[in-house]
Design brief:
Layout lengths: L3 H16 L4 E7 L2 H12 L4 E9 L2 E7 L9 E3 L6 H13 L4 E14 L6 E12 L11 E7 L11 H7 L4
Parallel strand pairs: 1-5, 2-6
Antiparallel strand pairs: 2-3, 2-4, 3-7, 5-6
Amino acid sequence: MDDPEHDVNRVLDRLEDVYGEVPVHRESTPVPREMYVECMNAADNGELGGTRVLVSHENEFLLVRETGEEAWDAPGGSLSRNDTHAAAGTQYVADQAGIECTVVDAFAAIEREFTLVDGGDGVTGLWVFFEAETFETDVELGPGIEDAQWFARPPAEVGPHLSERLASAAGDD
């Protein structure tokens, strides 16, 4: 089994090579044993982590709302084995909103360690947030997506880790 922490460091090194410095937020989350085992299995399979892609067109940003969710978020989801974060992200945009896009930057990463007890050893996954551009504006809702819209200003309810980026992109700093 590969060491997931080393895998995370390799991915962060590759991101830095391509996009320059990417701010990394580190979090630790104690979880119940059943969830910890699921996280370990996902890490062993190369599937612990995910991606979100903030797509822009002119001065607007594409956000989606998943079925049953109140908050708007950037398209994205979990990794599958052998996916790169950027490739998975552009595929999620296509699947969830019917938009082809090109990743232009990585603006944040979350390195999240899941542990059985607070402060204990754990298993680590990486979630990466990208910016992308597109020339397409017609959205086509994919499975599990209740709505997808272009916004010039962020809506009131947005997913975690996007509020600050959306506000600065809309000129609300």
